[in-house]
Amino acid sequence: MSEATGYGEVRILHFGDVLFGSPFLTPAPEKSAERRRIQRETFDRALQTIRDQKVQLAVITGDLFDEDDLSDETAGLLLRGFRSCPACRFAILPGGADPAGKKSFYSSGRFPPNVFTFGAGAYETFRFDEIGVSVTGRGSGERGEESAAFPTLSRKDEQEILILAGYRREIPDNTEIVSVGADYIALSGRADPTVLEIGGSVVGYSGRLESRGYENEQVGGANLLTVTEEAGARRVHVKRLDLGTVRCLSRTIDVSGMKNDSELIGAITSIVRDNSLGRSAVLRIEVTGTVAPGFRIPRNAGVNSFGLLAFSLVNLTAPASDPQLLKDMSARGELYRLLEPKIREGSDAERAAAARALTIGLAALEGQEIKDL
Fold this sequence. Notes:
- The chain has helices at 32-52, 72-83, 174-180, 261-274, 303-306, 323-327, 331-345, 348-365; strands at residues 10-15, 57-61, 89-93, 115-117, 124-128, 133-137, 161-167, 184-188, 194-198, 201-205, 221-230, 233-242, 247-254, 281-288, 290-291, 310-315, 318-319.
- With 373 residues, it is of the alpha/beta class.
- The protein has 2 domains: 10-242, Purple Acid Phosphatase, chain A, domain 2, CATH 3.60.21; 247-365, no CATH class.
- The protein is elongated, with a radius of gyration of 26 Å.
- The relative contact order is 0.11.
């Protein structure tokens, strides 16, 4: 413990964008229970980190849950989690998905005494004098709302560490950051975990606690802040902790020139292998290029084919022009002339549907098996 301050080293965990109750990026109903399990295990790891690292303060900056889908079960899980860390104080900022309000869970009065929640009125400050840290914030008041213009902070004494909590999708400009005068500006609202040093302030986006989309290929996590005394002044150091398990990747495969769907399956398998994807990975493949009318995009290539948490394949291919089919007076030609303009000029969804219809139709007219198309 420092003789100068009496505070010693202080540890703070910053995270957000947990979104309990919010739909995951894949709608597959058979995976819903597994997705909920993964999300809860990641939250439990954050709580275990608080206990193991002897974290004195956790700052949660927005979207802890989705207010529209908060169940009693999820509410109970959150409350039990906070109670399981009695030595830690939780400062929670309601965000765009879990705004504060009279009917909000934040106004339920059910939180334990170690939880401090910001309202949606004026900016307010929670001072934790025993560790020499204050947190200032103002919660979102309605769905989608971001933090208002940041205030200028003032110190109770020279050794006090000032933290501003906010919810912003875009990184604030340098002028606004400098005017705050905070040691650490804790933000959520962006998928990318980002740490910047601007004008004496550290700006930290926590990213998502668990990855939920394709904006960032890293696993989710939190920022661990360590406050120490250096040369007579207190300083904030930030370390990124990977607490999540899910990786979300999106890749494009050009199938032009491929002779059959086995080559496409081979290309997808290579992506899975080269990126070391396993049962906690989500992969989306966009298939592009020009293909012969009979080229099959396998319909049933899915999660079980590659051992992933979730897999989706988006067909954005266009058929190669086939002069013979255009002139063909049989049913094959009629089908081709009907669907070719839709594949060439329609929306992505229309093109995919028309291309699939053409593949199935041509296969059926040729007497081929169509159950796996």
